[in-house]
User: Fold these one by one.
Assistant:
Number 1:
Amino acid sequence: MQRSYNWEIVTSLLAVDIGNSNITIGAFDDQELTATWRLATRETRTVDEHAWALQGVLRSKGVEPDSFDAVVICSVVPPLTEAYVDALAQLTTVEPLVIGPGVRTGIRIHYDRTQDVGADRIVDAVAAHQLYGGPLVVVDIGTATVFDAVTADGDYIGGAISPGMEIAADAMFRNTSLLRRVELIAPDQVIGRSTVASMQSGFVYGFAELIEGMLARFKMELNPDAPEDVTVVATGGLANLIAEHTESFNHVNPELTLVGLRLVHEMNNA
């Protein structure tokens, strides 16, 4: 059945964040994020299948792929980077900017091997510092739980990586005989009265405590004279869930990476 739309989304920049679990897509009209989409990450898809899936989700909100003036891509899944570039070539004549070595980001990276820092971590740091200032810590709560430290001057100085809730849940399910998969929601109390509630408590409240503890340590190292002045920005697919059970976050911005992609694109096209 033909679908009709009673709105029009004006687009100029398509931002694509290819993560380990999801591909997050955003459409920008100038500085305004006008629409977002999310696809499951599937490395086994062909280029044609990626193009078909991307075209389908864009059109679900009345957006044509060839309506964009520019495209920017951030990827932590190398096999999908080239596949998405090729897929986009089927849908638009615009050559995408792929975040990587040689791309201007506006921040200095203090890391033993700068090429080892995930592109999404740098993009998040760019966006967080631009939006909220520093010193700051970005905590990305997704497939992994990632902490990144940025100085007041906007220098990226490193971070920490721990398993995410979904990875922990999958590992527990695979390696135990009597425990099953559970929905990642917070039970009413920390002391679970059932196996399901006990697991949910361990995941949600346990990770909230992990994050609070790591943030306290980060603040002391990043700004020892005034750790309370360090801003904490949470992002990622599970940020809102954890935010309900901690007071450690100053800002929650699930679209931080998309905003960072826009900012980096602007720096490289000024």
Number 2:
Amino acid sequence: MRSYNNTIKKQGPLSEGKQVLGILLNGDQILNCSSSPTSHDQGNCGRPVGRWAVTQEGFQVNVIGYKGAKPKKQLTSDPNVSISYLPTVPEFNKYLPRLLAYFFKVLWQSLTLLWALTLKRRSDFVFVQTPPAIPVFAVVWFYSALVRAKFVIDWHNYAYSIMALTLGKTSVLVKMSYWFECYFGRKAHGNICVTKAMSLDLMTRWAIVSKVLYDRAPEEFHRTTIDERHLLFTRLSQRYPILGGALHATAFTKIEEGRPVLRSDRPGLVVSSTSWTEDEDFNILLSALVNYDKCDREDLPKLICIITGRGPLKEYYIGIIQATKWRKVSIITPWLEEDDYPLLLGSADLGVSLHTSSSGLDLPMKVVDMFGCGLAVLAHDFNCVNELVRNGQNGLIFKDAPQLSGQLIDWFANFPDGPRRYDFSKAIAAFGGLRWHQNWVQRCMPIFKPNQDFKN
């Protein structure tokens, strides 16, 4: 979920004061939006919210969520956005068996979310991003029926498939989530999803008609200038010395005649973002980097690999990284300020995506961000990845660590100034020509027109 700054002229139906409530969900988050409207989001309010395009079209947004990272200034300074917080869910699992704890967690979330919704002014639309699904679908459906609002679901993945990663496909909770998503998904007035593969699956699996909306990067994701790179790495090197250099220099830049320039002896910079969960096999990247480190070719540069993200397996893999004896590869795992993340992507030489999707039907947002920064990507193969990364056209696909290490070696051969085997710049630039706000207005704003037929 993101926030956007673009200004687009209001279209007729949207400037008439129709009220909209959107609940945007991602992970443990819920968010809401509205028009003379009102909107709500349940989840960590610090996470950027991606449907703020509606605020540019005359809508007000009320965010309801759990406290987390500090909200973006774009949200807190926007007069059309208000933020309120849900009470933290008690740790029922500390005192109760798993099933009973889950029951009380769902009950708590249901009551607090319903209460938060009813405190807001009535809205004409309720917009839900999933996962999660339980209990949000039921609460929003009930609220929508109560106030005669339209219930719209934005499918990013299946909640049951994520639960199955840890509980197993035969788990009672997984089966219950499957039924829950099917039952309430059919009750939605409209559905949008992130891939053609998911749209087809929704139809064949649950007879749900949906509209495909591919993600696009917002404007803040762009290729950085040398000045921006120098300032970024100068700042980051204070916490991560490997990014630094001699006086007035970094590992990648130096000052010549009063201006920053790229160093000819700079290392290659690889970036990846991971959730550090079973959904993304970090062993593949780690093994590929070990293979690169062992390669004796003289035309290969040193590499710095920056891996962002937080998750349960992070400390485990950091231990492995620190125990490995590296010659040519350095790995750091920083937690970046939000404004630094697009600058890092725009400064990198290559991106790596380990995303495989629990359902095999969603696409990695991190690749969209990388393309927005003009960055080529090596992406893990899975069911519908070719809807975003087309092998040999705008990136490369790998299936395992040996293939990934071979791609890294091919990519960085003769770096930085020698002949390149691949050039995806034109295809990536074409992809980045369409940004999130424009894409959202073109594809989704018609949903908010009066008397919209959602099933078509």
Number 3:
Amino acid sequence: MPRRSKRSHQNTLDSSNSWKPDKAEDCDDGDTANFIGDDSGEYSLEEEEPPRKRAKRSHKSKYVGTGSSAKNRKGKIPEQFRGVRGRTGLLEKLAKDVPLDIFCYLDPGDLLRLARTTRDLRGILMSKTSEIVWRTAREGVDELPPLPDDLNEPQFAHLLYESYCHGCGHKPCDTIYWLLRTRCCKSCTRAIFIDHGSSDLMVKVPPELMYGPEVLPSEVVKRTIYSSIVENRALMTSLVRRHRYDSYRPDMVDKYAAEFNALKTEDERNAWISRQAEVLKAMKEHKYLCQQWFQARIAGRGEELVNVRDQRKIAILERLEKIGWREEAELSESYARDVFSNHKLVRQPKKLTNHGWKSIETELVQWLAEQKNKRLGEQRSAAIHKRIAMLFKEIKATRSLGNQLPYEDAVFTNEALRELIWETPAEDELSSELLRSKLSEHLPDIVERWSSAVQESLVEIIQKSRPNATIVDLQLATTVFECTGVAHEYFLMHYPQVLYHKCCLKYCFQSADIRFGYLKWSSENLILSSTGCHMATAIVQGCSLDPATATVQDLWDVNPLIECKSCERQADGRLFMRWPSAIGDSQHRSRGHSVVINNFGDETPHILACEPLDNLVCGSFPPRHLDAVISANANVVPFPLSIDDLRLHCYRDPTNMRDWSSPFRYRGLPLEPSTPVA
């Protein structure tokens, strides 16, 4: 920085005809009082003369070169720049009124920022003679409320435009307490303000100001209070209380209390209270105007930022088009979250310059390349999911009653189908005819291999209790499997129902790059149920069938009527059921319960009349068609279709785990003969 005399610095602040701004230096920005003026109406400028700096002398080199000297290497100074000292030297020739006239076209916020650039500008803008500049700048802002009586121009501009908290300095802070002339964030309200009813306020304020007409400026502050016993605030939300407090600024309270206490007579104090009440009323009216202007300014600023961001995005797209990445960027815009527009390099509210583009080009292109790979992967994954859905739709279309279908793991082991699904390019569509032809060629072999593997694993479970068991034992009515899974513990079932039980199905992923899960059948949660097999043997023997050869279908053909004598209640009557309930319910298959099987004599028709229709057809029957069945139940309207005929139209779906054989009660005379479970 060139040396300047004290006289030169003083001339800058005098009302001369020259404009001599000093070189920009950092100014103290921590305290508002340093630049907002004093109570006299003149804006103070308390700055010390900067210390003199010694000129830096260059030392001659020990070695003398053959080239020209450093002085000769410097270019010849143009005529118009000779005698000019410093970057702003040309401005010294301007008349002082010219910059001041220019400053009038700024808004008050710009004047504040300009006053912090150099000490000379600070001294000029904070002088009393510059008040017209501030007033003209304020009046040039649309719909801005007038200057309040208790603030000067820089103070009012500071409250309106400086968006930091006056307590902690955090930015941005858009919470303004207009009556208290303070910006404050939530965390600083307790430190800056004092609440109504607090001991500090009671000590400072005379009772006449607290309980008389409203005089003290106050604002409602919302604050969250946590109970002292709450340790985890995120979990104990029920103990959180939210309060609204009338808060005051301590220095305002001290000022009002001092003015009131300085008055000696009661008449003077009453007159002062009346005047201050009117002042507070005017302050509240001014507060409403400021709130309206501030909300409109925030909304306008939001629209301005949106426009700047849109212009920046358009400029980025134009530059991406030159390097071949615009199409990918526009594809990223089509996503639900519009990841391109929300990218940190695109969403900035700054105009794009050539220097700015060079600084973001590499990172943005790298991100677009990653987005492209991600998009292509998602397209491939979606195409594979679609093909898999079409494949299993065609597989289910080939299913017939009683025909077992393999799960996804068995289908994907076939190399031909796997190559068709995974290796076909994502942009190529697979037709249903092509899938159908491939299935007709490979599905029979897939089903045979899968069924053989499943049956072998089930036979191994049976052989743990019956060493001589074979595949034929799977069809026996006395072969009852039990689930040991947590979700369906002690659930009993026959073959092929075990093939569709949820605890036997595992969810696996085909590959790491494609998020596709598939079901795989496993027998690790199955055992042979000892109590279930024992009850099934008793029922088969009660139906005069051979336990070694009787199948599940044989038991369905007989469909015996069973009564549990141990569950009879005098108030509710006797409990009857079909064989699935007798085997499936744990309390009936326990060794302490005794059952009666198909031994009810002449009372049988009366018992059957109480049986639900679902039991008769072994399935859920639509209530709208109850009149289509002939039944001994008087509540059913007769129709020329017998139960046996109706069963021809129904079948038992092994994929359904529900036991359609519901127990029912019959109120009648108890029967004497009983066959206890051995």
Number 4:
Amino acid sequence: VGGGVRYAELARRVHAHGLALPNMASLPHISVAGSVATGTHGSGVANGPLASAVREVELVTADGTSATIARGDARFDGAVTSLGALGVVTALTLDLVPAFEVEQHLFTELPLEGLDFEAVAGAAYSVSLFTDWRDPGFRQVWLKRRTDDPLPAFPWAVPAKVALHPVPGMPAGNCTEQFGVPGPWHERLPHFRPEFTPSSGAELQSEYLLPRTHALAALHAVQEIRAAVAPVLQICEVRTVAADAQWLSPSHGRDTVALHFTWIEDTAAVLPAVRRVEAALEPFDPRPHWGKVFTTPAAALRGRYPRLADFRALARELDPAGKFANAFVAGLLDG
């Protein structure tokens, strides 16, 4: 597929041939190349990030030549989640699976106190928890069950009685169908319909990915600072991601819990809350999502990616003059 193809269009075409992508992000509006380059993901304890489905990358390198790097090449684990630092990605080859159907079941009022995170996160093919941190616990739980999997018991929360949008006050009609109505994978795995604005539209975002074994401790740490977070937060989403091998993937080498924050669109007001979240999560070795707002210094990031030196060598091989490295990437690689 072309690197600029959006997942919504790709999914429709793939489904028409009786096939599916293994997973999708919460919104289908994003491009394939940009998503995998930054480690974008959906949810599910057995589902890796979107880059896990890539088997081959074609790119134009700094000297104008074309390079193809495929699974099995020693460079492959640096070539997909690459921050755009290796060249212009022109095409990718993806793994597909047979098409499947999904039901979406929503619940409300899941307490944080006494939460069995592993049981909740593993209750369906894809699970998302939502909170605005104005009160302890989660306002919404979204379970996305493959119809060929058993229907999970979910005794910890209350079934939703009306259709919901993750962001308070936003129209539920913008979201994919709920109440357990079966439908094609690409019309249930994302939260948002492709023909509508995803999330709230006017927002800033941050996300921190850390070992799933720290999920409960991390959630309690954020709860402790919710007075600083809630006033500038629209919604927080908690998801899981299976470990992958990409050198710059935020889920590299570890099964992951991801804490995403959709902030109000006010940088000056949001940055103090971002710093408070980063300080609260610091004991848990967090890796920020590359495509979202964070203030973690490059020196700290370098210590969180054990294969960064290998990526630096690959970038210098394909782009020795740093044509594709902006100030951020140069600071990360050369510091």
